[in-house]
Amino acid sequence: AMEKSYMSMFLLLVAISCALAKDEAKKETKETTAKPKLPQTLSRGWGDQLIWTQTYEEALFRSKNSNKPLMIIHHLDDCPHSQALKKAFAESKDVQKLAEKFILLNLVYETTDKNLAPDGQYVPRILFIDPSLTVRADITGRYSNRLYAYEPTDISLLHSNMQKALKLLKTEL
User: Fold this and answer.
1) Which residues constitute the signal peptide according to the record (predicted)?
2) Angstrom distance (rounded) from CA 173 to CA 170
């Protein structure tokens, strides 16, 4: 318990010092010449050439209207498991190619929609939602305690689950 509170305190201090450093950096850049800042892409490194949606609502709307399945990736920037999965996802040519057939959304925050955390809020987790806006509970990773978790070594499983999400779409229509 003591270690946890030290860790919490440490993370809080890191967050505060980062925020202060950003403020300081902002002041400095305002005083010097304003350089155009490159926009943070919605891919967040999961596939810069892919088209990503900005919000869950937009993703649902586009999935329904385009009749494409939606793939939602929950992750965190400071989570080593998320980073490792992101790297594997971005480097897999097969996954990137198949991802073009989906409406894509990656979230670095939890949504209030309980359907997106059917077995808890953990990262990384990947859920598939069909155009009828149903979470595909039948498309899961290999862990029974975290159904939607994937690791870098699960990239081929993720790829076959992506194929499954597309295949089921064709048979149901």
Assistant:
1) 1-21
2) 6
Contact 41, 48 (CB under 8 A): yes
Whole-number Å distance between alpha carbons of 77 and 82: 7
For tokens 């950096």, the residue is 25
pLDDT bracket for residue 1 (50, 70, 90)? confident
Determine the structural domain holding residue 126 and report its residue range.
56-166
Q: What is the pLDDT of residue 110?
A: 81
Amino acid symbol at 29: T
Considering the entire predicted model, what is its pTM? 0.74
What is the phi-psi region of residue 62: left when phi exceeds 0, alpha when psi lies from -120 to 50, beta otherwise?
alpha
| Other CB atoms within 10 Å distance of the CB of residue 83 | 16
Instruction: Confirm whether 127 is domain-assigned.
Output: yes
Residue 75 has pLDDT above 90, yes or no: yes
